[in-house]
């Protein structure tokens, strides 16, 4: 297996990639009851990256997430998150991201800018990513890895349900951290 370092010549990576759902995590973290964090992920999604290593600004990314695939390892909580109180998945079955800009910020760092749509509400977000490297896998595929995270305010997307706590504060934080651990496979 040959591995390239994160500072590899980006021109070599030019091409179209698809997210590998078996090795990619699209997750989130929210504070619960003001004292702990709840982590979850979406298990069903697809995404395409058209990467231009000679002109990274021309790179285009699209991701579609099935809202019903939310998984926090608690069935009752997951059903509540799928309901109209949160994701309203019957009316809005998909969460989407479409890039509008891709900027190299360092040897192995990038800002991916795009439109995130949740519950039919779209806002621009900037997600800082770190390029983790590339490698030929045992099947002869070229894989690239990226990791990134961004904090959003769920209320900006119409996700406003909450419950006051007797001790003060609320049950669910407004701030949600979206986490991305991406493994993408180059298409021939």
From TrEMBL:
Classification via Gene3D superfamilies: Lipid/polyisoprenoid-binding, YceI-like (2.40.128.110)
Which residues are in the Lipid/polyisoprenoid-binding YceI-like domain?
A: 16-185
Q: Which InterPro entries match?
A: Lipid/polyisoprenoid-bd_YceI, TTHA0802/YceI-like_sf
Which protein family is named in the record?
A: Belongs to the UPF0312 family.
Full protein name: YceI family protein
Q: Organism source for this protein?
A: Micromonospora cathayae
């Amino acid at each position: 297996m040959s591995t390239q370092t994160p500072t590899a010549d980006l021109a070599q990576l030019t091409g179209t990639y698809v997210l590998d759902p078996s090795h990619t995590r699209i997750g989130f973290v929210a504070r619960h009851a003001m004292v702990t964090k709840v982590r979850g992920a979406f298990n069903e999604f697809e995404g395409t990256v058209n990467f231009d290593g000679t002109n990274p600004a021309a790179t285009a990314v699209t991701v579609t997430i099935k809202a019903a695939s939310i998984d926090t390892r608690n069935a009752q909580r997951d059903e509540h998150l799928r309901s109209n109180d949160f994701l309203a998945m019957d009316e809005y079955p998909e969460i989407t991201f479409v890039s509008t800009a891709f900027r190299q910020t360092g040897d192995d760092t990038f800002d991916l800018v795009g439109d995130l749509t949740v519950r039919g509400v779209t806002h621009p977000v900037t997600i800082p990513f770190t390029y983790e490297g590339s490698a030929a896998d045992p099947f002869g595929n070229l894989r690239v890895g990226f990791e990134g995270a961004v904090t959003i305010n769920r209320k900006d997307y119409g996700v406003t349900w909450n419950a006051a706590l007797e001790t003060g504060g609320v049950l669910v934080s407004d701030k949600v951290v979206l986490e991305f651990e991406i493994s993408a496979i180059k298409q021939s």
